[in-house]
């Protein structure tokens, strides 16, 4: 497996090259590959409390996710929301998303967290302690399942 060093930065710490690299990955996967038609740039990336986690290689960002903070919990006590989890096609199956999740849990494991998983990826999140709740639903034309992880 190639390097899996996780980088974490807030909006104000990002370089333009870092921003371009993970936005390109998100666009390549969500828009081109998955044909998502929802708004990608929702201004949540720019919030002071948003954290960006990624793994890079010589080709750019190999895997990415962001962690948002919502003042109102969507479910139980979860104010941290993991989203935009994405892995470049040529690096899938290497455990990069799990490495990103481990870093988030290492940083925020004492807090409850929530995510909206694409249904096929729910087992990945279950390995990290996330439990499904509610019914599956369509988000951006893709079947999703809300998942919750209690704080430790």
Automatic annotation (TrEMBL):
Domain N-acetyltransferase: 9-152
SUPFAM superfamilies, alphabetized: Acyl-CoA N-acyltransferases (Nat) (SSF55729)
Highest taxon in the source lineage: Bacteria
Gene Ontology MF: a single term: acyltransferase activity, transferring groups other than amino-acyl groups
Protein name: ElaA protein
Organism the protein comes from: Glaciihabitans tibetensis
